Amino acid sequence: MKFSVLTIFPEMFSGFLKESIIGRAVHDEKIEISLVDIRDFSKDKHKNVDDRPYGGGAGMVMKPEPLFEAVESVRKKNRHAKVVVLTPQGEIFSQEKAEKFSLEEELILVCGRYEGIDERFYELCADEQISVGDYVLTGGEIPAMAVIDSVARLIPGVLGCSDSVNEESFTQGRLEYPHYTRPYEFKGLKVPDVLLSGNHQEVKKWRSKASFLRTFRKRPDLIIKYPATAEEKKNA
Questions:
Q1: How many alpha carbons fall within 13 Å on the CB side of residue 194?
Q2: β-strand partners of 185
Q3: For the chain: N or C, fewer Cβ within 10 A?
Q4: Residue 7 has pLDDT above 60, yes or no
C-alpha cells in the first residue's frame, strides 16, 4: 500500500519514517510513503501557499491552486488514489475507518495548515475529510502520522504477529483485556491465577469477560453501539 502525504513541512516526517514498526515496514517494502511538498506547486516566486481570506478575519487560508496541482501530480500515476484531507471538520477517525482505508491501493493525505483550506479544494478534490478528535492542532501532519500508523499496521506482514490485530482494542467494539507479565507479584498486586493455569479455554473466557467489563466501565458508548452478545451477558 502507498501513502502520499501533501505537506508544507515534509521534514516533520523524517523520524517517523525511520523508526519502529513504520520504519521497518518501509524498509521491507510492505508500505510506501511519499512526501509531496505543496510549495513545489506554488506559482508564486516566494513559494507562498496561503493568502488573506475574502471577507476578512484572522489568519491566512491555504490557496486552492498549489493543493490542486499537488494532488494531480500524484493522481497522474494513480487515478484511483483516495484523497483524504486531515481537518477538524471531518469525520472522527476510528478503527473501522482504518480497516476500510487499509483496503485502498493508495491514500493521498492532505495536511491542512493556517486557518484552513479554500473550500473549492474540498469540492474539487476531497474524497473524505478526517478528524482525529475534537480539538485543534497547528496542522494536519500529526493526524496524518496517526492515520498512517493505524492503517499500516493492518497491512499483512507489517506486524510480526497477525493475532495482535484481531485482539486489539476497538477491533470488535471492545477495549482490550488487561495484560500482565513478570514478576508474578509487584507491590502487593498479583497476576490473576487463571492466566497461570494453562487452561486456554478459561483464559479465553476470562479475557472476554475482562474486555467487556473494561469497556462497560470506561467506554459505555461502545456497549450502546455494539450491544452485549449472549456470551458476554452470560459471563458478566
A1: 13
A2: 190
A3: C
A4: yes
Question: Is 57 in contact with 115 (CB distance < 8 Å)?
Answer: yes
How far apart, in Å, do the first and last CA atoms of the chain sit?
Answer: 40
Looking up cell 458478566, which residue turns up? Answer: 236
CA atoms of 56 and 36, how far apart (whole Å): 30
Rounded Cα distance between 205 and 189, Å, is 22
Q: Read off the amino acid at residue 59.
A: G
What's the length of the chain? 236
Q: Could you say which DSSP state residue 196 is in?
A: G
Query: Half-sphere exposure of 112 toward its Cβ, with a 13 Å CA cutoff?
Result: 25
Distances (CA, A) of 35 to 6, 17, 54, 77, 189: 6, 10, 30, 15, 47
The 10s digit of each residue's pLDDT in 14-41 is 999 999 999 999 999 999 999 999 999 9
Task: Give the per-residue pLDDT at 56.
Answer: 93
Give the count of beta carbons closer than 10 Å to the beta carbon of residue 124: 13
Q: In order of start, what are the domains of the chain with their CATH numbers?
A: 2-152 (3.40.1280.10), 169-235 (1.10.1270.20)
Q: Cα 44 to chain center, whole Å?
A: 33
Question: What is the pTM for the complete model shown?
Answer: 0.90
pLDDT digits (tens, 9 = 90+) for 126-168: 999 999 999 999 999 999 999 999 999 999 999 976 656 656 6
Mean residue pLDDT across the chain: 94
